[in-house]
Design goal:
The structure is a homodimer. In chain A, about 40% of the residues lie in helices and about 20% in strands. Chain A has 16 helices and 19 strands. In chain A, α2 packs antiparallel against α6 and α3 runs antiparallel to α4.
Chain lengths: ~450, ~450
């Protein structure tokens, strides 16, 4: 299905206005983020969706028919019927580390085309990048313990698959979401629900029934009535499994003081000779709570994280934006910027590139330059992925993207991964960019504000 | 497409355990919310999705094949191949007002069936109810001014359509999301972007191009460089439109001090004889900011609200849960509840109903009773909508659902709609329910905790 109408109405009205006025210059837009919700860096994600979209972007008959009912011009709609994206796109590969103001994607195309794709690009990139970044923080907080994503029931509706995909890119080990397992090949994991326990006359009967069905993959939920009593019953069932030559895999805590309970349950298991049984913990966890649990010496082997991971709580949206930076008119580049009454909303003019200085495998600082500049001893971060409307890069697999993110995260110095109070990573503007910005601000002041 | 695998893995492992142990009693689950994120009430939404799902729920060959690769039992998978939902569902109609702990949906079915549907039901109901409730607050804060939903670019990926649908149920007047217009029939609206303005050599040229393309539906964005200067240019173009017998419809502010700017811009427009031109405002708005703007006497006719509306920020997930309340064994009802180390996580046992006392068209209080009770002079809120797996209610249209929500909201006394500090709406438990709860807690203490 084409997603051409997955856009804001104003993209289409602006397109009609561009078309009617014969104003369709080549334009360059940058996708970038002004402010990072928590922490100092972003793990970029969502680019695969953008590439799929670009390749399949067209208006179907029923799209055109709908637009006709909304009063669009018949000639303009004829033009839309043959619409294709024909521009160039540079982007940081999916799974990159990015910082505020850096162009993550740079689109150059006739302005009607570049304008239309804004909304889809923002919708996909903002959400996937938000969640991949969040996941990387949760994984970092767990210091080597695994994170299982359990968020489907609290995910924002149909966004669940993208959410799960992004948590995997950010470093989560598995998901409870079976559809994500089937469609994306992500490992699936799960234990049991309280209803399973309460549906039986006695808690221990429920444990036996589960152990019978999954003797090799048995995790028992122990907090339905009382976690300590549950742990004691899990020991009984664990011993019964041993007699059959099997091993209980784990128990799950889902409420109460997880640090204290996990230590107590660990002792109960160890005292019974069940040192091999893992302890899983869940219950409204996030990076800060996990960090605190680890600091308190909680004996937890695996964390199940749901709501916060898939919604990005406390900040459920990334303020990524897509801003015009250059227009070519009469074969001349006209760098563009928004000034705004709020300084923070001003943008960087001109076609730009992003460079990274890396020393001994560690990221030191980035530089945003104009397109024609070359920053020596620095890695260019933007790669050309679409040329004249065709995707020219290899589409990496999800595993490759996840590995790329993991490698990049390991190259980012730990100081920038601090959950709170991480310093700002240095992102410099080249002198040419600074000078251009000053010239454009002056030009706007002269021409528009006097 | 069947959504059978849109579930948590543990639902399927529990199903296999139920199936292997021959434990498949009739079970009743309640969907309810423990805590409302902001405010004192919920506007329920999402039920239409649940009904579609129930009617189409089956495991396709490729679903079964995927589960086989995950180690499920071959005989169990044969059983799944013929799986259908055969139970009964009672629910509050979509667009109802609900309060914490009240069953919004009550599912009674063989436990394997009732268990499987949990995740989908939670995913859909939690999100749509969250957003419809949020929207109703934003609409209330605007006191009669229209709310246009502009959230697509910040929506959580593919959740955007459900988000837009829920904002419409909650009372928003329109959306920028063209796909929602096409698929759901929601009115679409939009203005122009900063890029449209900056792409031209001069701001006023962009206004003229837009007015030329949309002489009857012309909204001009005036804050790209400076809102006051933008307003003056909008006046020029408004006058040019008048000469052609047309009227400028509106101007949009998107940054700065919206209260002060709107008053200043109103004066500029009025002084020029353009008293008919509307002022639209946008820019990270929410119910609190709109309330403040209205209190400050801002001259804003229409608010565009994006991020907060479609993500529910600051609380992007509703903690709605689905808990086992009753099991029939040997033809006897066995009421069930979760006790938990956290008292807040304990649940209400038994098959239940919800009643509402209404006086002079206003909601006074609700009562949660056991199924067999009748509360006199009260309206029953749960209606049977699925019987033996078949949907038996008429599926209301989106307009009907929106009207239902609007009617219910007008019957809810205003005191409960206060943005902050609204009192708790009285929800009582019948004496029989209280007594049952005490008996079950005592039984659990005796049997599981000693």
């Amino acid at each position: 299905m084409s997603e051409a109408l997955r856009t804001d109405l104003y993209q289409l009205t602006m397109m009609q206005a561009y078309w009617k006025s014969g104003h369709d210059p080549e334009a360059t837009f940058d996708y970038f983020v002004r402010k990072i919700p928590s922490g100092s860096y972003l793990v970029t994600a969502g680019l695969s969706y953008v590439l799929d979209y670009i390749e399949n972007l067209r208006f179907e008959d029923d799209d055109i028919e709908y637009l006709r009912t909304q009063g669009f011009d018949a000639e303009f709609l004829k033009h839309l019927r043959n619409f294709r994206f024909t521009g160039d796109i540079l982007a940081m590969p999916e799974g990159s580390i990015a910082f505020p103001l850096e162009p993550i994607i740079r689109v150059t195309a006739p302005i009607m085309e570049a304008q239309l794709i804004e909304t889809f690009l923002l919708n996909k990139m903002n959400f996937s990048t938000l969640i991949a970044t969040k996941a990387s923080r949760v994984v970092y907080a767990a210091r080597g313990r695994s994170i299982a994503e359990f968020g489907l029931r609290r995910a924002q509706g149909d966004g669940h698959l993208e959410a799960t995909r992004a948590t995997y890119i950010g470093g989560c080990a598995s998901t409870s979401n079976v559809l994500a397992g089937k469609k994306l090949g992500i490992p699936v994991s799960g234990t049991m629900a309280h209803s399973f326990v309460t549906s039986f006359d006695h808690e221990i009967e429920s444990y036996r029934a589960y152990a019978e069905a999954f003797p090799k993959k048995c995790f028992l939920l122990i907090d339905t009535y009382n976690s300590i009593e549950g742990a004691k019953k899990a020991v009984i069932v664990g011993k019964e499994l041993e007699k059959r030559g099997e091993k209980l895999m784990g128990v799950r805590l889902d409420s109460g003081d997880l640090a204290e309970l996990s230590k107590h349950v660990r002792r109960i298991l160890d005292d019974a000779g069940l040192g091999y049984v893992k302890i899983v913990a869940s219950g409204d966890l996030n990076e800060w709570k996990i960090d605190e649990l680890v600091n308190k010496g909680a004996r937890i082997d695996l964390f199940g994280v749901g709501t916060e991971l898939v919604t990005g709580r406390p900040t459920p949206a990334l303020d990524g934006i897509y801003k015009l930076s250059d227009v070519v008119q009469h074969s001349r580049h006209m760098p563009k910027m928004k000034l705004s009454d709020d300084t923070i909303k001003a943008t960087l003019p001109g076609k730009k590139r992003v460079w990274r200085i890396v020393e001994k495998g560690k990221f030191i600082k980035d530089v945003i330059s104009l397109d024609e500049e070359h920053i020596y001893d620095a890695l260019p971060l933007l790669e050309k992925i679409v040329e004249k409307g065709k995707v020219i890069c290899n589409m990496p697999s999800l595993e490759e993207i996840r590995n790329n993110a993991g490698k990049n995260l390991s190259n980012l110095p730990d100081i920038y991964k601090k959950l709170d109070g991480a310093p700002v990573y240095p992102v410099e503007f080249s002198r040419e960019l600074v000078e251009l910005r000053e010239r454009i601000i002056e030009k706007i002041r002269m021409e528009e504000l006097s």
